Amino acid sequence: MEVRYATNPTDFKNYDGERVRSEFLVDSLFVEGELNMVYSHYDRVITGGAVPSVKPLKLEDQETLKTEFFLERREAGIINISDGQGKVTVDGESYELNKRDCLYVGLGNEEVTLESVDASQPAKFYLASATAHKQYPTKKLPIEDATPTKLGSDAESNNRTIYKYIHEDGLQSCQLMMGMTLLAPNNMWNTMPPHVHDRRMEAYLYFDMDDESRVFHFMGKPDDTRHLVVKNEQVVLSPPWSIHSGVGTNNYTFIWAMAGENYTFTDMDHVKMENLK
């Protein structure tokens, strides 16, 4: 488990490109046969990637969390981003996840293992975890059962479909929210004009990109922006005070995960284009 500390936006003004990448870009979560995680001091959110091959991988890190088991004081959302079918077993009950299926795992579950149904075509599990004080039941939501929301247009190059998996009207959680956005072909922008939500942080996993594709992820205070050049299956940790918007060299998919003060999808503060610098 790598640990990332929070950053003061005033100090952020002095960061060069290398420092911005080291603080906010997670570039190597998905390694075959490994579970890799990053603990962020922004709202204590953990992001992780698991690629089980021959052996299952157990969700654990007692040394970092100082708890008896991973979900003793936490909840988690898990999404399979690979064509390879995966299986998650939670305290003896198994859930099979195809590509883009989501599983919510609630507070108090002691043993969570992740495995690939076929080791020759391994699953890739992306997980987000937040602290929790109330238990909700473990539930699976396949993408075909998730309610799609259409936003944007071809004219604005942001025609996209949002699937809200873990949220107020979907899979119930204590404070974690999680979903996925798919951009239509020939559409590259997400969330422009941008917004901030100072009451919670957000993590972005960009995927479904080929080796040559890139996303330019914009962050920072609205009047003092920076950018990150992001490759396939990399994560951006977005502070509560930062905008989070991106444009790709072609269409892509991303998973967003949020946690913090409010449990609502619509409490963002919109930024006018004239105020961006």
Kindly provide the name of the CATH class.
Mainly Beta
The helix tally amounts to: 3
Number of separate domains: 1
CATH topology (level 3) name: Jelly Rolls
Mean pLDDT: 95
The count of β-strands is 24
Uncertain spans:
none
Major β-sheet profile: 7 strands, mixed
CATH architecture: Sandwich
Fold and architecture overview:
This protein is mainly β and 277 residues long. The chain has a single domain, classed as Jelly Rolls (Sandwich), CATH 2.60.120.10. Helices cover 6% and strands 42% of the residues. It is built from 3 helices and 24 strands. It has helices spanning 9-12, 17-24, 62-65; strands at residues 2-4, 25-26, 35-40, 46-50, 57-58, 74-80, 86-90, 93-97, 102-105, 112-116, 125-131, 139-141, 148-151, 160-166, 177-183, 189-190, 195-196, 200-207, 215-221, 224-230, 234-238, 245-248, 253-260, 269-270. The protein has a 7-stranded mixed β-sheet, with no helix packed on it. A 7-stranded antiparallel β-sheet has the order 2-21-18-23-15-14-13. The longest helix is centred in the N-terminal third of the chain and has 8 residues, at 17-24. The radius of gyration is 18 Å and the shape is globular. The mean pLDDT is 95.
